[in-house]
Amino acid sequence: MTGIGSIADGFSELSTWAQISVISTVWLVAGTASVLLLSRRPARAHLMMVAAMACAVACPALWIVAQRAGWGFLPAVAPGEIGLAGSLEGAPVVATPGSGISGFAILGFVAASGTVFFLARLALSVRRGAGLASAESEAADPSTLELLNIERARMGITRSVRVRTSARARAPMIWCWGRAATLLLPPDWSASRRGSRAVLRHELAHLERADHRWCLLADLCVCVLWWNPLAWWCRASARELSERACDTWALSTRSSPTDYAEVLLSFARPANSGAALGAVRSRRGLERRIRRLLCAPATDPRAGACWILAMVCVVGLSATGVSLAQRRAPSNTSIDIPASIRPAAFEEPEIDVHGAALQFGPEVLDLGTVPPGGSGTGVAFLLNTGAEPIDILDYKASCGCTSVYGFEARRLEPGEAMELLITMTAPEDGGEFKEKVVRVRARGFEEIELPVRLVTGGAAPARTAR
After folding, report:
1. 334 by DSSP, 3-state: which?
2. Which residues of the chain are in CATH 2.60.40.10 domains?
């Protein structure tokens, strides 16, 4: 647990945006790796890719929620003996009323604005697909309907499917939303053409696999992670895997790969189908698809119920483990602090009657010399020296190796103080100097920082760990 704790402590030193970027990128890389490992089973690789993209969005949010709530399977840093280490020398840090916008808020605004833009673009794409499905069109010929019903029965699809021909459909495409799916065929479609059966099975496979839902989920993930180039690549890869998985369905009845490839090549310029799923969505990946159709061996088109269950368990446990791989928040029960080390400012605070003022002291919390691998403990305070109440919101230590006991998110009345017990673990080597920061946020004030430092016993300090 020591190695995991060290990694978690180091990771907690990153900014919130850096943590979000790292966690999301790790999941996207995991999804990319799944494509390589499961390249011969596109149905399984597709599900793994979409699951990884969903975790890339959910895990950073769960991490932040767990961090704010103080959840984690790593223990909090235990406080050492009060009074053996800890210096309260120096003037306290005085907080000033907030006067500007923080960098975190600016990044959050940019990220939210981009998400809103791409969500609007996604909504237009869905509307475009719905417009294609509801546009005026002609009924398909009876031979196509008969062939479609045969393939529906073979694939075990019970949902009704409307079949229409439309000049706006340059390639077969299916709209899966709504009570009845809508299959759109180009005007020159012929059910008697060789390879037509495979094309119909391909479109029905999109319906059977619920690709419209998986595609929407991947699109929503990109709307959130639009700033990460790997997210766009993963979405494109998920779409390609979806087409490959449907191709395995198309050839599962021993249809000729050559005939099927010739039909796909005849759809030279597919229309912009929006959220509808077409047999050929773009020309860019068609060459690779055809090469695989002609060369790759046939595989099982289904992912398998047991495999899906195992994947859900593994991904769920991994996501939970990543989200909780941090130290629990220390208990905020009352602390018995000796009066001998309580700051004099607690007894007779100087009140500024002209407005709100908040002090976080001391100026630097020096925990003194601590044995290697041990922990140093000191006392700090938050003091309202103004004439108005101040709402204390939350705190954050720059490293998981630093714990704060006695903190409460509450209102401090004028002259009221909050005593904090701060503990920090020492490096394993002697002669090491270590300094971290505890940050506190209060409503209407800029974030205030309290440096916390210690030195491990042994040789002279060799290097600084920030």
Report:
1. coil
2. 93-100+330-465
State how far the Cα of 125 lies from the Cα of 116, in Å rounded to an integer: 14
Inter-residue contact 325 to 74 (CB < 8 Å): yes
User: How confident is the prediction along the chain (466 residues), in pLDDT tens digits per residue?
Assistant: 556 767 776 777 677 888 899 999 999 999 999 889 998 899 999 999 999 999 999 999 998 888 877 788 877 766 654 443 444 444 555 555 654 556 667 888 999 999 999 999 999 999 988 888 887 677 788 899 999 999 999 999 999 999 988 888 888 899 999 889 999 998 888 888 888 999 999 999 999 999 999 999 999 999 999 999 999 999 999 999 999 999 999 988 777 888 888 888 887 555 555 666 666 666 667 778 888 888 877 788 888 899 999 999 999 999 999 888 887 776 655 555 555 555 554 444 454 445 568 888 788 898 888 898 888 888 888 888 888 889 998 888 888 788 888 888 889 888 888 888 888 888 888 888 999 999 898 888 888 889 999 998 865 444 444 4
Residue range 93-100+330-465 in CATH 1.10.10.10: no
Q: 76 burial class (0-12, 13-18, 19+ CB within 10 angstroms)?
A: middle
Sign (positive or negative) of CA dihedral 108, 109, 114, 117: positive
Is omega for the bond preceding 362 within 30 degrees of 0, making it cis?
yes
**Token pair of 451, please?**
């440096």
Residue 220 to residue 207: CA distance in whole angstroms: 20
Environment class of 272 (CB within 10 Å of its CB; exposed 0-12, middle 13-18, buried 19+):
middle
Distances (CA, A) of 362 to 97, 326, 327, 452: 19, 28, 26, 10
Q: Which H or E element spans position 55?
A: helix 42-69
